[in-house]
Amino acid sequence: MKKNSKRFNELLKKIDTSKRYLLDEAVDVIKTLPSAKFDETIEIALKLNVDPRHADQMVRGSVILPAGTGKTVRVAVIAKDAKADEAKAAGADMVGDDDLIDNIQKGNIDFDVLIATPNLMGLVGKVGRILGPKGLMPNPKTGTVTMNVKEAIENAKGGQVNFRVDKQGNIHAGLGKVSFTKEQIMDNVTTFIKAINKHKPAAAKGRYIKNGALSLTMSPAVALDTQELIDLK
């Protein structure tokens, strides 16, 4: 069993591990935990009471964080003609069709989000096996398969976070940076949890959110009061 580092153990002393914190308290604690030389990401982990093996219990979508993610997001767009021009004007970092697909096939993935117009999804399908495992496959549910490429680019660069439950019923996401103000962090976290609650499948029974925690990139986790999370609508 791997031992915790001295730094990690010092951070643990700041957390009551027997307690489930209200969000307001949890953010106060999180703000005391930075220990890295970079601006650490605030991460949320939720365990949902769903079985994603059943299509009617899949939880997937996107949400725009009011304070943004604190990251510079590189956006690529698969589009042609007028839509390609629209993408370039909207600030896409790279725009193309066959040439962009060729680059992806060669392993050149220099983007964080891929947007595609519906008419070119057949083309994107050629690299689905490359994009899928990286979570980069465009999908209508996350707004990345659309004719409104301008809005999709603005959303991606303006703080959109995509989420998808894994096989064990977990959802993880980065919700900003520890340098954000407490109010910005609270806004981002509550907005994200409300989005998760709105995506509760009708087939999900019992307590939808089983547990949750906040942490930083390099910190221990702060357990959250589950009832407060469930009540956020």
From TrEMBL:
<dbReference type="GO" id="GO:0003735">
    <property type="term" value="F:structural constituent of ribosome"/>
</dbReference>
<dbReference type="GO" id="GO:0022625">
    <property type="term" value="C:cytosolic large ribosomal subunit"/>
</dbReference>
<dbReference type="InterPro" id="IPR023673">
    <property type="entry name" value="Ribosomal_uL1_CS"/>
</dbReference>
<dbReference type="GO" id="GO:0019843">
    <property type="term" value="F:rRNA binding"/>
</dbReference>
<comment type="subunit">
    <text>Part of the 50S ribosomal subunit.</text>
</comment>
<dbReference type="InterPro" id="IPR028364">
    <property type="entry name" value="Ribosomal_uL1/biogenesis"/>
</dbReference>
<comment type="function">
    <text>Binds directly to 23S rRNA. The L1 stalk is quite mobile in the ribosome, and is involved in E site tRNA release.</text>
</comment>
<keyword id="KW-0699">rRNA-binding</keyword>
<dbReference type="Pfam" id="PF00687">
    <property type="entry name" value="Ribosomal_L1"/>
</dbReference>
<protein>
    <recommendedName>
        <fullName>Large ribosomal subunit protein uL1</fullName>
    </recommendedName>
</protein>
<keyword id="KW-0820">tRNA-binding</keyword>
<keyword id="KW-0678">Repressor</keyword>
<dbReference type="GO" id="GO:0006412">
    <property type="term" value="P:translation"/>
</dbReference>
<keyword id="KW-0689">Ribosomal protein</keyword>
<dbReference type="InterPro" id="IPR023674">
    <property type="entry name" value="Ribosomal_uL1-like"/>
</dbReference>
<keyword id="KW-0694">RNA-binding</keyword>
<dbReference type="InterPro" id="IPR016095">
    <property type="entry name" value="Ribosomal_uL1_3-a/b-sand"/>
</dbReference>
<dbReference type="GO" id="GO:0000049">
    <property type="term" value="F:tRNA binding"/>
</dbReference>
<dbReference type="InterPro" id="IPR002143">
    <property type="entry name" value="Ribosomal_uL1"/>
</dbReference>
<keyword id="KW-0810">Translation regulation</keyword>
<dbReference type="InterPro" id="IPR005878">
    <property type="entry name" value="Ribosom_uL1_bac-type"/>
</dbReference>
<comment type="function">
    <text>Protein L1 is also a translational repressor protein, it controls the translation of the L11 operon by binding to its mRNA.</text>
</comment>
<dbReference type="GO" id="GO:0006417">
    <property type="term" value="P:regulation of translation"/>
</dbReference>
<comment type="similarity">
    <text>Belongs to the universal ribosomal protein uL1 family.</text>
</comment>
<keyword id="KW-0687">Ribonucleoprotein</keyword>
